[in-house]
Amino acid sequence: MKESKIAPKVLIAILCLGVIAYMSVYIFQAWRDDLVTAAAYSYTQSVGVEGRGVVVRREQTLPGDSGYLDLILSEGEKAAAGDPVALFYSDPSALNIRQSIRSLESEIKQLQYALTASASGTADAAALDGQIVDAIVGLRSLSADRDLSALDSAALALRTSVFRRAYILEDSAAGELSRLIADKQSQLAELNRSMGQVSKTVYAPVPGVFSGETDGWEGLVSPDMLSSLTAGQLEELLRENPSGDPTAAGKLITGSTWYFAALLPGGNPGLAEGRTYDVSFSDGWYGAVSMTLDRLEVGEEQTLAVFSARTHLADTTLLRVQTVDVILDEIEGIRIPRRALEVETVTEDVTDEEGNVTGTEEVNHYYVFTVVSSQAERQEVKVVYTAETYYLVRPADESARDRLRAGDEVILTTAGVYDGKVVR
Question: Is residue 164 exposed (0-12), middle (13-18) or buried (19+ Cβ within 10 Å)?
C-alpha cells in the first residue's frame, strides 16, 4: 500500500502560510509608526473676568460747516489751542487745490533740505541710495498687500530721497535749488490765496487729542458722572444707540486721563480698588491697557467697575462700547495636549497630626510619558490649569533630576507604553 503524499504537502503549505502571515504582521508593525508625540513648552495663561462697558473721556465736539470736509490732523494727533484741525471747502475743485498745496509744501521742504546739505557738504550718497531702495521696497510691499492706507507717506518718502540724491552732489546745485525754491514758494502763495476764497478753517479752541469721528456718546457720558453711576444706570446707557453729528469737524479729547466703566458678573470676582489690572480690548483696537480700578460697586447680579488710565489715549480714540477681559492672574506652567496626561488613582493612608493612620482615601496622581533617547520615561506632574484642548502642568518634584521640562517630547499615544519601554 502506497503512503499518501497529500498530508505532508498540506502541513508544509500551512507552515508556509503561517510563516508568511507572521512575517507580514512583523513587517507591517515595523513599517507603521504608532508613536505620536508633541513638544511641551512654557506657557503663561491669563485668567480673568469678562465685562462689557463704555469708554468715557472728557470730549469737546468741533462745530462743522457746509461743504467738503478735509482733515488736517490725523486720528490721535495732539493739537495745541489755535492749531488748524480741519478745512471745509465750498467748491469741489478746492480739493484739488489743497492737494497741490500739500505737494508744493513737500517739494519746498525737500529742496530746502537738499540746499542745506549741498552747502554744508554733509550729504552721504550711499545713505541716500539706501533710502531710495528701502522706499521702493516699501512701496512694493504695500502694493502686494493691497494696503493703500500708507501709500501717500511711502510715495512721499521715495520722492524726498530722489530729490536729495538728484541735487546733492552737483556743483551748480545751490543756484538752481534757490531758484526752484523761490518759484515753488511763489506758486504756493498763489494757491493759498485761491484756497482762502473757497475754504473755511476750523481751529482747536483748547489743547487736546484730535479725533475725526463723533459717535453721539459725547453728550451721554462724561468723567463727572462716574462717581455716582450705578450698575443699573450703566446697563441703561449700554442699551442706547446714539449717532454722531455728520456735520461736525471731529472732536477734541481734553485731559490726559480716560476711563472705562464696565459691568461684570455679580459678586466680587477678586478685584480690589486702587490696584492695577490689565484690561484687554479686542474690538476696533487689539491690546491690553494697564488700568487702575478707581471704583467697585459689588452687586448680587452685576458688579460695576470703573477703571482709569493715562496711557494709550491716542490708540483708543475710536473705542466706545467694548467687551473686555479684566486679567486677574497669570498662571505659568508647561503646556501639554490633553491626550498626553495619564491619571492613576491610588489608595493612600490618612494620618492625623501625630502620624497615626486614621483611614484611607483615593488620590489621583498625574503622569506624562516623554521620549528620552529611545525609551519612554514616566514623569509625575501636577495640573495647575485645565483648558479645552490642553493642560498647564508643573513637575510634582521641582528638584527632581528627571522632571518634566519645557522642550521635552511628550507621548500622546500612551496605550501599551510603560516606563522604560523602547519606543524608537
Answer: buried
Task: Give CA torsion, residues 266, 271, 274, 279, to 10 deg.
Answer: -90
User: What are the phi and psi torsion angles at 193 (to 5°)?
Assistant: -65, -40
Most confident of 171-180, 193-202, 260-269: 260-269
Q: Domain spanning 49-60+220-330 has what CATH number? A: 2.40.30
CATH 2.40.420 fits 37-41+335-411, yes or no: yes
Whether the CB-CB separation of 273 and 293 falls below 8 Å is answered with yes
Most confident of 130-144, 150-164, 311-325: 311-325
Overall pTM > 0.85? no
- In sequence order, what are the beta bridge partners of 332? 44
| Rounded Cα gap, residues 207 and 216, in angstroms | 21
**CA distance linking residue 92 with residue 99, whole number of Å:** 12
Lowest mean pLDDT among 73-82, 117-126, 173-182, 189-198: 117-126
Residue extents of the structural domains in the chain: 1-29, 37-41+335-411, 49-60+220-330, 84-203
Whole-angstrom Cα distance, residue 86 to residue 212? 9
Dist. CA 363–CA 345, nearest whole Å: 6
Kindly indicate the confidence band of residue 1, based on its pLDDT and cuts at 50, 70 and 90.
very low
For the chain, give the mean pLDDT: 84
Contacts of 234 (CB under 8 A, 6+ apart): 53, 54, 261, 263, 304
**Fold match flag (37-41+335-411 vs 49-60+220-330):** no
